[in-house]
From TrEMBL:
Origin species: Carex littledalei
The name this protein goes by in its record: Uncharacterized protein
Superkingdom of the organism of origin: Eukaryota
Family matches, as SUPFAM superfamilies: PEBP-like (SSF49777)
InterPro entries from the UniProt entry: PEBP, PEBP-like_sf, PEBP_euk, Phosphatidylethanolamine-bd_CS
Family: Belongs to the phosphatidylethanolamine-binding protein family.
Transmembrane regions: none
Length: 175
């Protein structure tokens, strides 16, 4: 059995197919590094994060998406995958602020349950080759990647629940 947090959390299966991590991404909310699988409340994710790309070179361009595969609730994710943010044309070895924000950041505000908020970084074929969808709801990372011939380079996630929620997401091998 895998100990990869993306497998254990079912990001790999619900959102992404297996991939080989090629470069790193660092997610910083309020100048604090976010660890894969950490728990963040909506009050901690009000403003868009800083995303640092560790690798590639300035001639490579990347697209970053933030999706919620558990919208509107983990037991009935009929808006899966809700697109919270999209930045295209990010040069390698920089951060998302160097790209084009084509879907403005919408902070996560789960109403029911614990939601997995997934960041996916794709390598583009070239500059200005990726375009935003018409709607935020029912976005599909797999279809999006096929449509624009994107390669997954990195992914990470955090868990988010309403401010007054309690408990955490637990994964068992038999889930």
């Amino acid at each position: 059995m895998s100990s990869d947090p993306l497998v254990l959390s079912r990001i790999i299966s619900d959102v992404l197919d297996p991939f080989r991590l090629s470069i790193s991404i660092r997610v910083l909310y309020n100048n604090r590094f976010t660890v894969t699988g950490s728990e963040l409340r909506p009050s901690a994710v009000v403003n868009r994060p800083k995303i640092e790309i560790g690798g590639g070179d300035l001639t490579d361009f990347y697209t970053l998406v933030l999706v919620d595969p558990d919208a509107p609730s983990p037991t009935n994710p009929n808006l899966r995958e809700y697109l919270h943010w999209m930045v295209t044309d990010i040069p390698g070895s920089t951060d998302a602020s160097f790209g084009q924000e084509v879907i403005f950041y919408e902070r996560p505000e789960p109403r029911v349950g614990i939601h997995r908020m997934v960041f996916v970084l794709y390598r583009q074929l070239g500059r200005a080759t990726v375009f935003p969808p018409d709607m935020r709801h029912n976005f599909n990372c797999r279809s999006f990647a096929r449509q624009y011939h994107l390669e997954i380079m990195a992914a990470t996630y955090f868990n988010c629940q309403r401010e007054s929620g309690s408990g955490g997401r637990r994964f068992r091998p038999d889930n």
